[in-house]
Structure formats: C-alpha cells, structure tokens
Design a protein that fits this description.
The complex is a heterodimer of chains A (152) and B (70).
Chain A (H helix, E strand, L loop, with lengths): L2 E4 L1 H8 L6 H10 L3 E4 L1 H13 L4 H14 L5 E3 L5 H15 L7 H15 L5 E4 L2 H9 L4 E3 L5
Parallel strand pairs in A: 1-2, 1-4, 2-3, 4-5
Chain B lengths: L1 H5 L4 E5 L2 E6 L10 H4 L1 H8 L8 H9 L1 H5 L1
Antiparallel strand pairs in B: 1-2
Classes of the chains: A alpha/beta (152), B alpha+beta (70).
Chain lengths: 152, 70
C-alpha cells in the first residue's frame, strides 16, 4: 500500500462528509486507497478541527471514522521518526530558506518539512493538500504533490 | 502453531474456553479497509446537502496577515 502525506486540509476533507473538498479527496482514495502518514502535529490539528465540527450527526460520523482509523496500525501510519522537536527545527530551517518566496503560514512549513523528511527516507509516495500555497512549497522541495481543487 | 500460521492458517487462542487472541500470518491484513472505516461517512455524503468551507484552510487564511502586508 502506498504511503501518502495528506495535509490536515485533505484529511479533514476526506473524513467530513460535508467538507467542500470531500468528493474530490474521496474519489482519489477510492481510485487507489493509500495509507496516510500520522504524527503528533497532524493528529493535533486534525482532531482539533474535527472536535469543532462535532455539531451534528455528520460531524459525529467524521469523528467516529477518525477514531476507528486511529485504532489501526496501517490506515493512519504513526511515524516515530517525526518527533515534534525535530520537525520544529526542520520547519524553521525550511522557513529560513523559503519564507521570502511563498505565502505560506507556519503550519504549512511544518507539514512540508515533515513530508520532506519522510521523502528523504524514501518512505513517501505522494503529498496531498487542498492548500494552493502549500502545494507550491511542497513542489519546491521535490515532493510529488497532488493539489485538490473544487469542481466548478 | 507458528509453522501453521506461517503456512497461512489463522488461529484463535482461547483461555478457559473463551477467545483471548488471534494468531494470523504476518503478511495478512488485520486492519479494516478505508471502505469499512468510512462506510458511515460515505452514507452521509451520499445523502447530499450543503457543503461547508474547509476549516483548516479558513484558519490558515486568517493567519496570513504577514503575507498580506508584505
């Protein structure tokens, strides 16, 4: 099974049935189901946003799907290599190198730095995001990147 | 038992007559597929309804103050 780093924007869209990107991200998963990278910051950002969305039964369904996926070993693959302290240093280095060229926020650098780390270890097949600026940053560091766009 | 498992056999380990664990070949999938995990979400999505903006992107756009003033 291929391993994909899905930015939180894409993982949220996959899990929440009402998200604007849900259809396009789900279609990509159904075409060739990947396992997704999971680590501390991604977990925090994803859980936080799904908690805020638990306002109706669709939000509850998304939360239950996340918890079921977290109980697996493979669907959300925990990356022991991606520790918060190491990734903060890596994001800082990436920001120092690229901040003048891309209109990305601090968390964008954290995700791309983490994905680049896995890419360098030859463990990553693709980087998925719904964020245009983050996709440009990911491409600039050599990640095979899939940007999800809304259907017109 | 390990030889049998390596030969492809799945076994249930019981303690005091009650199932306690499973022994399966190492190359067998034990996790549910995304299809199974997402069944309820896909049913909800199939019902249609309005979509909502992606909150992760919305939060990031709000934070891009520095980029906007540069």
């Amino acid at each position: 099974m291929r391993l994909v780093y899905a930015d939180t924007s894409a993982l949220f869209a996959y899990l929440h049935p009402d998200d604007e990107f849900a259809v396009v991200v789900d279609a990509a998963v159904q075409t060739d189901p990947p396992d997704f990278v999971y680590w501390a910051f991604l977990r925090y950002e994803l859980r936080h946003n799904l908690r805020l969305a638990r306002t109706n039964r669709h939000g509850e369904a998304a939360w239950r799907a996340l918890r079921a996926a977290e109980k697996t070993v493979a669907r959300l693959r925990w990356q022991g290599e991606l520790t918060a302290d190491k990734m903060l240093d890596a994001a800082e280095e990436l920001s120092a190198e690229k901040a003048g060229d891309f209109e990305c926020g601090s968390s964008d650098y954290l995700h791309v730095a983490a994905a680049r780390r896995l890419h360098l270890l030859s463990d990553l097949d693709e980087f998925w995001t719904c964020d245009v600026a983050q996709a440009k940053l990911a491409l600039s560091v050599g990640l095979k990147t899939r940007l999800f766009a809304l259907k017109a | 038992m390990l030889d049998q498992a390596m030969g492809g056999q799945r076994m249930k380990v019981v303690r005091n007559g009650r199932p306690a664990a499973l022994l399966i070949p190492v190359d067998e999938e034990i996790d549910p597929s995304w299809e199974e995990i997402m069944a309820e979400v896909r049913t909800a999505r199939a019902q249609g309804g309005s979509t909502r903006p992606n909150p992760v992107l919305a939060e990031r756009r709000k934070r891009h103050y520095a980029a906007r003033v540069r």
